[in-house]
C-alpha cells in the first residue's frame, strides 16, 4: 500500500463500525417502526381483525416502495456518477428525470390501486372477515401513495447530495407525527383502521413537504425546469442503477402474496381459522424485521471498511472487521431468539389482546417460525460482506436464496404435508439452509483471501519520447480479447514516440487510493449481469463505479497534457467531444482470437472460445453501463480494423498514418 491517508485504513475497527453503522441502524429502524406503529394502535383500538387487514394491504405499499426505492437509489447513484465525472448539468437532468418518473409512476399506481383495490386484496389473500377493514384501510392508504413514493425517492437523493442528517430528520419527523396522530384518530376520534390510515398519510405528507422544500437547496446541483423533461436514455440508466432495490422489495411482495394465500387456505382448515394466522404471521414478520434492520445496519455500516481494506490487501483488518460484525450480529440475534422463545405471549400482547386460540398460535409462530433466527446473524452480514468486496454473484445468491429459492417452495411443500404448521416449519428450514450456504461461501472466501495473485503484468513503459506528431493527439483503443489490440496499441506508441497507458492506470490509482493493484485489476472494466444486484443495502456507489470515476479523472489529466495511446476503460466516451482524439476498435475472427489466447496467454484451446466470450461480455457490459452505448457499434469509433486482414504490424502502421494526417490538420 502506497498511502495510508484514508481513515478506513488506520482507524480502530470498532470506532469505524460505530461511526458508519449507527446512522444505518437508525434509518432502517425508523422504516421498520413506521410499519409497526399502526398495528400496535389498531390492535388495541380495533382488534386483531384490523391488524389482519393491514397485513393484507401491506404488499400494495411494498410494491409502491419498490418503485420509489428503485428510482431513489438509481437517481442517487446517477447523481454521484455524474458529479464524479464533473458533469453537473447531466447530474441535474438525472435528478429531474428521477423525480419526474417517481411522480408519474406514483400517480399511475395510485389510480390503479383505487380502481382495482378489491381485486388486489383477493390477490394478497383477503378473507371475507377481513374485507371491510382492508377496504377501509386500503382506500385511504392509496391516497397517500404519491406522497410516500415521492418522499422516499427524494430521501435517497438528499442523502446523495450530502445531507443525510436532513434526510433523517424528515423521516423521523414523519414517524413521530404518525405515532401522535394514530393515538388521536383511533382513541380520541374513534376512526378505527381508517383513522390509522389517515395518520399514516398525513405523516407521509409531512416528509414529502420537507423533502420538496430541500429541492431548492441542493448543494451539488441547481435544478431548472428544463431538467424535468423526460429523456428515455436517462430514465433507463436511473432504473438500471436502482434495479437491485426493486428486485429486493418485490421478492418480499411475492413471498407475502404466497404466504397470505397459504395461510388463508390452510388456516381455514385448522382450528385457528384463516384470520388468526394471517394476522399473527404479519406481526411476527414485522417484529423479526426489527432484528434484521439492526443486523443489516451493522453490516451495511461496515461495508466501506471491508471494501477499502480488502482492496488495500489489509486482510488482517478485513478479518477483524468481519469477526466484529459477525460477533455483534450473533449476540443481537441470540437475544432476539431468547425473547421469541421465552416471552412470545408478551410480544404479541404489545399488539392488543385476543382469544385463547390467537395467543396459542402467536406463541407457536414465534417459537417455530423464528426458531433459527440466530442464523440471520451470519447469513445477512455474509451477503453484505460479498457485496463489499465486489463478489456480486455470491452476494446475489445469498440475498435471494432465503426468500425466493428456499422459503417460498418450502412453504408450499410443507403446507401440503403438515397443513398450517408446515408454513411455520418453512421459516427455520429456510433460515437453516441459507445459513449453511452462507457459512460455506464465507469460510471458503476467508481461507482463500490473499492467496490469489494477479495473472497479468503491466508492461514497462519503454516507449520512446521522441514524438513525431506535429500536434497533440490522443488515441483511444478498444479491442476484443485475443484480437491483438493491446499489442497494436503498443506498436502505435512506439512508432509515434508517445506514451502508452494501460496497466499504468492501475498503478497510479493504487498510489492515490491505497487500494492494491490486484484488487483494482480484478474490479475494473468488468461488469457481469449480476453487478446491479450488488447495491441492495448500502446507499452509495459500488467498487466498479468508484474505480470508473478515478480512471476517468486520470484519463482526462493524461489527455490534457500529452499525446498518448490509451487502452480500453471507456476512454473514447470519457474524451468524447475533443477534436484531437482518434477512436479505434480492433476486432478479429474467433479462430485467430483462440490462437492468440492460447499462444500468448496460455489458455487451453478447448476452453479458449468460452473464456474469450466471457471476457468480451464483461467488457461489453462495462461499456454499456457507463456509456449507454453498444461496445461493438462502429459509430462509436473513427476506425474499426480486423487485425487478421493486415496483421498487427500493418494495422499499427495504417493507424499511425491516419493519426499523422489527423495531427497535421489540427
What key phrases describe this protein's structure?
Rossmann fold; 666 residues; mainly alpha; five-stranded parallel beta sheet; 74% helix
Describe the structure.
The chain has 3 domains: 204 residues, no CATH class; 182 residues, no CATH class; 192 residues, 3-Layer(aba) Sandwich (Rossmann fold). The protein is 74% helix and 4% strand. The chain has 22 helices and 5 strands. A 5-stranded parallel sheet has the order 2-3-1-4-5, with helices on both faces. It starts with 12 loop residues before the first helix and ends with a helix.
Which structural class is indicated by helix and strand composition? mainly alpha
Series of H and E elements: HHHHHHHHHHHHHHEHEHHHEHEHHEH
Distance between the termini: 42 Å
How many helices in DSSP terms? 22
Q: Kindly report the spatial arrangement of strands forming the biggest sheet.
A: 2-3-1-4-5
Tally of strands: 5
Percent range for helical residues? over 70%
Q: What's the number of domains? A: 3
How much of the sequence is in beta strands? under 5%
Q: What's the SSE blueprint?
A:
Elements: H1 13-45, H2 48-84, H3 88-123, H4 128-160, H5 164-188, H6 192-215, H7 232-268, H8 275-311, H9 315-342, H10 344-349, H11 356-369, H12 376-388, H13 392-418, H14 420-448, E1 474-479, H15 485-496, E2 499-501, H16 503-513, H17 517-523, H18 543-561, E3 564-567, H19 571-574, E4 581-587, H20 590-601, H21 605-627, E5 639-642, H22 643-665
Parallel strand pairs: 1-3, 1-4, 2-3, 4-5
Amino acid at each position: 500500500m502506497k498511502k495510508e491517508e484514508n481513515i478506513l485504513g488506520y482507524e480502530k475497527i470498532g470506532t469505524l463500525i460505530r461511526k458508519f453503522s449507527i446512522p444505518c441502524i437508525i434509518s432502517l429502524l425508523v422504516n421498520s417502526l413506521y410499519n409497526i406503529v399502526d398495528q400496535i394502535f389498531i390492535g388495541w383500538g380495533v382488534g386483531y381483525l384490523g391488524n389482519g387487514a393491514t397485513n393484507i394491504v401491506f404488499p400494495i405499499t411494498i410494491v409502491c416502495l419498490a418503485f420509489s426505492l428503485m428510482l431513489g437509489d438509481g437517481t442517487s447513484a446517477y447523481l454521484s456518477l455524474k458529479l464524479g465525472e464533473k458533469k453537473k448539468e447531466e447530474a441535474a437532468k438525472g435528478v429531474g428525470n428521477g423525480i419526474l418518473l417517481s411522480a408519474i409512476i406514483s400517480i399511475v399506481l395510485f389510480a390503479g390501486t383505487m380502481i382495482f383495490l378489491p381485486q388486489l386484496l383477493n390477490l394478497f389473500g383477503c378473507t371475507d372477515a377481513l374485507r371491510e377493514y382492508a377496504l377501509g384501510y386500503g382506500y385511504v392508504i392509496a391516497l397517500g401513495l404519491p406522497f410516500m413514493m415521492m418522499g422516499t425517492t427524494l430521501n435517497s437523493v438528499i442523502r446523495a447530495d450530502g445531507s443525510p442528517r436532513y434526510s433523517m430528520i424528515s423521516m423521523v419527523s414523519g414517524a413521530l407525527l404518525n405515532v401522535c396522530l394514530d393515538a388521536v384518530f383511533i382513541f380520541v376520534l374513534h376512526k378505527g383502521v381508517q383513522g390509522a390510515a389517515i395518520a399514516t398519510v398525513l405523516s407521509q405528507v409531512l416528509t414529502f413537504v420537507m423533502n420538496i422544500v430541500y429541492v431548492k437547496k441542493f448543494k451539488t446541483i441547481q435544478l431548472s425546469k428544463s431538467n424535468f423533461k423526460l429523456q428515455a436514455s436517462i430514465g433507463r440508466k436511473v432504473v438500471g442503477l436502482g434495479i437491485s432495490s426493486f428486485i429486493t422489495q418485490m421478492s418480499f411482495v411475492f413471498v407475502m402474496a404466497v404466504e397470505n394465500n397459504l395461510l388463508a387456505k390452510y388456516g381455514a382448515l385448522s382450528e385457528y381459522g384463516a384470520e388468526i394466522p394471517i394476522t399473527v404471521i404479519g406481526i411476527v414478520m414485522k417484529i423479526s424485521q426489527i432484528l434484521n434492520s439492526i443486523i443489516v445496519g451493522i453490516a451495511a455500516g461496515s461495508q466501506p471498511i471491508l471494501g477499502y481494506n480488502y482492496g488495500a490487501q489489509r486482510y488482517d483488518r478485513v478479518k477483524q472487521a468481519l469477526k466484529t460484525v459477525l460477533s455483534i450480529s450473533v449476540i443481537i440475534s441470540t437475544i432476539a431468539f431468547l425473547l421469541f422463545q421465552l416471552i412470545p405471549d408478551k410480544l404479541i400482547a404489545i399488539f392488543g389482546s385476543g382469544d385463547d386460540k390467537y395467543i396459542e398460535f402467536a406463541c407457536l409462530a414465534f417459537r417455530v417460525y423464528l426458531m433459527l433466527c440466530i442464523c440471520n446473524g451470519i447469513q445477512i452480514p455474509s451477503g453484505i460482506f460479498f457485496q463489499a468486496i465486489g463478489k456480486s454473484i455470491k452476494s446475489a445468491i445469498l440475498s435471494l436464496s432465503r426468500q425466493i429459492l428456499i422459503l417460498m417452495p418450502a412453504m408450499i411443500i410443507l403446507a401440503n404435508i403438515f397443513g398450517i404448521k408446515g408454513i411455520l416449519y418453512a421459516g427455520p428450514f429456510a433460515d437453516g439452509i441459507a445459513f449453511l450456504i452462507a457459512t460455506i461461501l464465507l469460510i471458503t472466501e476467508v481461507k482463500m483471501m490473499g492467496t490469489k495473485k494477479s495473472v497479468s503484468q503491466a508492461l514497462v513503459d519503454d516507449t520512446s519520447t521522441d514524438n513525431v506528431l506535429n500536434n497533440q493527439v490522443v488515441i483511444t483503443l478498444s479491442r476484443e480479447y485475443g484480437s491483438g489490440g493491446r499489442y497494436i496499441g503498443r506498436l502505435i506508441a512506439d512508432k509515434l514516440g508517445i506514451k502508452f497507458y494501460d496497466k499504468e492506470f492501475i498503478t497510479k490509482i493504487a498510489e492515490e487510493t491505497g487500494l492494491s493493484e490486484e484488487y483494482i485489476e480484478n474490479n475494473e472494466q468488468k461488469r457481469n449481469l449480476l453487478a446491479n444486484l450488488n447495491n441492495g443495502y448500502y446507499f452509495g456507489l459500488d467498487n466498479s463505479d468508484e474505480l470508473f470515476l478515478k480512471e476517468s479523472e486520470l484519463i482526462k489529466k493524461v489527455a490534457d497534457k500529452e499525446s498518448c495511446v490509451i487502452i480500453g476503460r471507456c476512454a473514447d466516451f470519457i474524451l468524447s467531444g475533443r477534436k484531437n482524439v482518434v477512436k479505434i476498435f480492433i476486432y478479429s475472427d474467433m479462430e485467430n482470437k483462440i490462437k492468440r489466447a492460447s499462444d500468448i496467454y496460455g489458455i487451453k484451446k478447448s476452453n479458449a472460445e468460452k473464456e474469450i466470450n466471457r471476457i468480451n461480455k464483461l467488457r461489453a457490459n462495462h461499456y454499456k453501463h457507463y456509456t449507454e452505448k453498444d461496445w461493438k457499434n462502429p459509430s462509436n469509433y473513427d476506425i474499426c480494423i480486423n487485425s487478421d486482414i493486415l496483421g498487427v504490424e500493418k494495422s499499427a502502421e495504417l493507424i499511425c498514418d491516419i493519426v499523422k494526417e489527423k495531427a497535421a490538420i489540427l
